[in-house]
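S.,

Sequence below, as promised.
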Amino acid sequence: MALSDQLMDLAGRTKRLEDAAAAARAKNVAKLEEQRGKVETKAASKKGEAESWWIETTTKIDKRRAELKVKHEQHKAERTVEAAKRYADATADQAEMFVVLADYAVDAATEAVVDAAIAEEQFEAMKKDHVKVGS
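The prediction came back faster than expected:
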């Protein structure tokens, strides 16, 4: 086979490789776009769930606080040592509940911040890889 024929054959194979790489790149971009859509949809759903949970939780807390306030007013009216002790115990229990809730919220927020940082890193890496592949 002549050198020019070999060069033509090499050029043809190179062109097929370039075409295959371009097709794979387009397919990967399409998959990433599809995955991003799924992630965004899931995130929106989870956001709605979190908002619902938060509304439900704060409603319960407000209701409990209102009940305790009513009990406190009753205890003040009774003016007994025993009633004051019960109120003190109930408010101590409530304070403990709020501390536990705050601890949980801090842990959840910390985890969310870490997840967000990881996602941002992955996004930046994907963006860099996409720019390199596209160049």
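The radius of gyration is 31 Å.

Coffee later?
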